[in-house]
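User: Please predict structures.

Assistant: First:
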Amino acid sequence: MLALLLPQAPTMVHAGSTSAPHAGLMRADVAVASDIAVARALFERNLDAIRRRDREAYLTCYLRADTLARTGPEGPLLGYDSFAKENGDDWPDLFEGLDLQLVPIRPGLVYGTYRYRVRYGPREESGISERFFVKTGDATTGRGATGAAKGGADRSAAGWKIAVTTAFAAPPGTPPPPRALVGATLVDGTGAAPVPDAVVILRGGKIDCAGTRAQCPPSKGVDTLDLEGLWVTPGIVDAHVHFSQTGWADGRPDAIDVRDRYPYEEVEAGLRAHPERFLRAYLCSGVTAVFDVGGYSWTWDLRGRADADPLAPHVAAAGPLLSTLDFWLNLPAERQFIYLGSEADARTGVRYLASHGADAVKVWFIPVEERKFDDMAKAVMAAGEEARA
């Protein structure tokens, strides 16, 4: 399929040729640089059309031929007409194309990959996409191009088209592409004075460098985000949250019982099904990490879900609490309180938590008149010994 897209192979300079070999190599280098430049210009024009929701300019970027290839749900799809019919009406709310890597295949053909992030309403996806940029005889560039696209780079890209386009979702936990945050005032959390016009380099999902422009110069090719006039500060850690509670009486009928209007089972089912309400609220409040210090076992699952979601903070979770009180606030088939009825119960409970990778052991030491204080203390001590074992 791709063989149909390849231009004729370039003429090689043979040993007996009268052409100067160094001049030929220099011309080849210039041609390669030119191809990469126009492929990049076409890529930027394609992204610009998406952001402006310009269907005509968007479709003009693609090869108008039966050999236009793209990925489909069951394999490759061919043809411009079906592509045009399916695109240009449903525009994303956000589209980012970052970390573009271009490789010249031969004169007139460039292969590229980039990392994408796209959002439609509350649904966001990210992954890697491929492009083949091919030089054709079509000099059409489309209308409505703005900014640099109207300049020489766009005119030199006339005749270049996207001939192959693919998109593959990133596996959960894949770090975002490198990026440089530039121009903001940085507070690094060490107590040092704020750094004006700072640079923060993000790489592999972590902060690689944070400081002055001299200390953290952005690498060539890394996408930059201008934050002039803004501040960059350390994220806040909320070290005491409960995803199994709502913050109101419907999540704590032991305090105020409103179950006749808000059945507890339904409240808990809603919390389990839609944790994103709280996760996004935390980020919007500057909280980048939270510690759930006791709740139902499903709170453990939030850790992996949050790590794979750029719109969620980091989550640590203790899971069910160990309690000296055989508390009734549970569900028919789920407990959020493990009763410390004896030292043996304590050790069994800790082993259960450890088997699920609990980030901590939460003990609810509630004095109970019916039990001897020393017996409860021994059970709590046994839990501590088992947790440290």
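Second:
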Amino acid sequence: MSRPLESQRALEWVSIHRLAGARRHSTNEDLSLVE
């Protein structure tokens, strides 16, 4: 069961948080919050 909508949203979320994490240099913290 593939959900293109959720996948696209996930990619957008990742791209946004990757930019934010790059600015704060704390991508590991962002990833830990998701898990």
